[in-house]
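Practice set, problem 2.
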Amino acid sequence: MPTALILLSLGDPDRAKAGRIMQAMMKMVKLDIPTLQAAAEAK
């Protein structure tokens, strides 16, 4: 598991944020960290 993914989702208690990250990740063939970061920052 990439370190960035751990920092984005596992270390954050915000479940909505984790959900956005997971939804974005499930659409990917390869992990696109900038897209995951954008999903994490979305409101």
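Problem 2, part (b): a different protein.
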Amino acid sequence: MGTRPANACLTGIRVVEIGQALAGAYAGLTLADLGAEVVKAEAPEGDPAAQTGVMDADGVSAGYKATNAGKTIVALDMRAESDRARLSELLLRAHVLIDTHKPGVMERLGFDRRRLTVLNAGLIHVSLTAWGRSGPYAGRDATDVAVMALGGGLDVSGSSVGPVPAYPPTSDHAAGMQAATAVVSALFRRERSRRAVGGMRDGRGAFIEISQVETVLAWQSPALNEAWRGHPPERRQDLLTGGLAGYQVYRTRDSRHLAVGAVDRTAWVAFCNGIARPEWIARQREPLPQRRLIDDVAAVVRERTLADWYGVFQEIDCSVEPVWSLEEVPHHPHLRSRGSVRAGGDRYEGLQVRSPMIFDDGEPSERPPMVRAAVDGVLSNWSVPDRPPAWTGDPPAAQATDAEPQESPLVFRSRYGRGAGP
């Protein structure tokens, strides 16, 4: 029997993931990286993401395979009563539910919070939506660019021409990470609560609401506070928005790009010496935006190729790096030395990007390819654990939950009532 991977902290935790949003898929991937057993339920026709992007010879997209690595995919037709019953059986055995449906969908399918609480009082249910479960936008469609626009994530990004969509989608991945953090926190709280529910193996569950827009909004807290005080950051005008010569992306002679992050004094001195312009060291204090200095640096960078500049700054530590293409990134010496990216046997086997979470100097577990399985097969392997007493009172949703807006995108509610803890 092999040694358990160092990052397998969630071994034995069962996760059911339903919905098609990338945020939920990334949350599930993160939990799988930590050792959880993740079962993703899809409609019989499959997830549209499987047919989006670069397709492999088997007719499934490369991106879909990467996002669902390590998961078991099962087909459930939620229009059929028999498959809704199978989902109930999965949730009876699960510890975590990641749900990315719009508000109201789970209720229409018969899985409202009261039903889930009675079914499995220890379940940690993450409702992961674009706009949140309340408010005028709650039922609206959304993509990352719209969420980023409303949450303030696009206002000062991009070039002088205007904002640009982020890739990969920022709000999806950020909310997915937030969801995984919330799940781990709720699991820890539940572990501490076991003694309060008669020593059962599972303690109290939770209902956790996370929205992509509030995740983005939380990241904007410093900028929003500056704007509130009458000094909003502006695109191409401020320290980190394109106004500083030492924080730019410059074009090289061969139409590649060099990223310069020489913000502090030591780095700026090293950078100026690297481009053979020591007389520009004193210009670091020029007022923002430093348009003349930016133009001067740009002219110098355009004189040489990216390979030339790479050779120069390999020997100078000042936060300067070529903008590597996605084809080049896996071959970078630093990433290769750390084993951050591993290639398959051929092009269609793809690459495996290692989990960024490294515990105790160990090696993260390999991400096995996703597998498809019958629901009944999963159920036969998942026994029904001991549970805390089923809650028979009013569901948390029926209790007063009005509160002042919070900066955090997480809204924890115990299944035994808001604020009930261990």
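Answer key, part (b): The two ends are 36 Å apart (CA to CA). The first strand starts at residue 14 and ends at 18.
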